[in-house]
Amino acid sequence: MRSSVCVLGVTLVASCAAEQPTRDPFDAADGEVEHGTTHSHATSHDDTETAAGDSSRDDSGPGASETSEPAPTGTSASESAGVRLDIAVPETTNVSGDDGGCSPSPDQTCGCTAVDILFVIDNSDSMQPYQDGLATAFPAFVQAMITSLPHGTDLHVGITSTSFGDPNAGGAAIGDDTCSYNALDAMALNHYPPPSQPNGQNGGQGRLYEYDGLRYYSMKTDQDPSGLEQWFSGAAVSVGDQGSNWEMMAAGGAWVAHPDNSAFNDGFLRDAGAVLVVFVLTDELDNSPEDVAVYHDLVVSAKASCGGDTCVVTGGLVPDCLPNASTNVLQQFLSSFGDVPTWGPIGTPGDSSHYAGVLANTLAQVIGETCDRIEPEG
Q1: Pick from 301, 290, 270: which is nearest to 371 by CA?
Q2: Distance from C-alpha of 198 to C-alpha of 112, rounded to nearest angstrom
Q3: Backbone angles phi, psi at 16, to 5 degrees
C-alpha cells in the first residue's frame, strides 16, 4: 500500500475538473454530492473461473430471468462513438435530447432497457474495513435503484479488482495525500501484466470477480432483490485485501471491456439501450500506466450503439483530494465521459455511515435520470 490515501469511485471525465471552478465536492449533506450518468445492459452468468480463464457458463443461476438471453458485448470501433484522443474538452456534457440524447416525441420512446453496474474494488492490504462499509450500504442502493428505474429493467451487477501484478512481488507504489504524485510509468509497468497473460487472480486484470459460482448477478427490477443483495454483500467482502499494492483502478475498470477478457466476461456488458455504471472503491492513488485515452476508448467501444459517452455513469468513494486532482489518472478516467462523477469521501476505517447516502441518495437517482434520456434497444 502506498503512503497516499485512496478512493472508491466511478469513471468520469478528467476535463470536468479542469473546466469547472475548484470546489469541495464533499460539502453536500447526506451523500448528495456531484454526479455523472451511464448506460449498459447484460445477462446472468454462473461461470466458474479457473486460472486458465475458462469461459464456460450456465445461464440458470440466481437472479437470472428465465426469459433473458445474453446480449453480446459491443465491439464497434471507438471512432463511431465519437471517441476523442484529446479529452481536455468533453464532446458530450449530458444526455439531454438537445445534446444528442433521446428526445421523447410521438415517434420516439425514450428509456433504457438495462443497466450494467461495475464496481471496481481496491483489494490491497488496507481495504477490508471499506469493503465492509460498501457491503452494508449496498441494499439501500438496490432499493433506491428499483424505485428510480422503469419496472422490469434488466440489471447486471459485477465486481473487478485493482490488482494486476503479483501480490507477493514486494514494494509499494509511490503517492502523497494531495493526489498529485504517482509512480513512474516504467515502475508501474513491472506490475502490469496484460490480460493476454492471465495470472490466475480471481477478479484480476479486468476479469470479473467470481463469487458463489457467479461472475455477475442478473435480475430485473420487478423481481425480489434479496438474492442480489446477499450475493453482492458477500462478494464485496470476499474480494479481500491480498491483491497487489500497485493499485490500478482505471485499468481494472477499462480492461473489463477489452477483447482479451471478452470470453471470460461474456454477457456482462450490453450496448444498445443499456446504461453502464463504473464505481470505484479505493483508498490509494491510481498507478495505471497507460494514457487515460486508452482506458476511456476501451469503455466507449463497448457502448458504440448506445451512444458512447452519454451512456456511461461514473463515481466513487475516494480520498478527499481526488475530485480536484486533475493530474491523477483515476480522476481523469472517471471524468472523461462528459458528466461530473458522483464523488464521495472514502473516509477512515470504520467511518462508512455516509456510503448509503452517496449510493442511494445520489448515484441511484443519476442512474434513473440517465436511463430516462437514452434510446431503448431496438
Answers
A1: 270
A2: 34
A3: -60, -45
pLDDT tens for each residue of 199-254: 999 999 999 999 999 999 999 999 999 999 999 999 999 999 999 989 999 999 99
Cβ-in-10-Å burial (0-12, 13-18, 19+) of 348 comes to exposed
**pLDDT tens-digit map of 140-149:** 999 999 999 9
d(CA 309, CA 93): 9
Q: Is the separation of the CB atoms in 158 and 267 below 8 Å?
A: no
CA 166 to chain centre: 23
Q: Which domains does the chain have, with CATH numbers?
A: 8-49+61-97+110-372 (3.40.50.410)
Strand 154-161 and strand 114-121: the pairing is: parallel
Q: Which H/E stretch holds residue 118?
A: strand 114-121
| Residue 78 and residue 299 in contact, taking contact as beta carbons nearer than 8 Å | no
* Residue with the three cell numbers 443499456: 274
**Residue count (the chain):** 378
The answer to whether 284 touches 127, Cβ cutoff 8 Å, is no
What is the Cβ-side half-sphere exposure of residue 335, based on CA atoms within 13 angstroms? 25
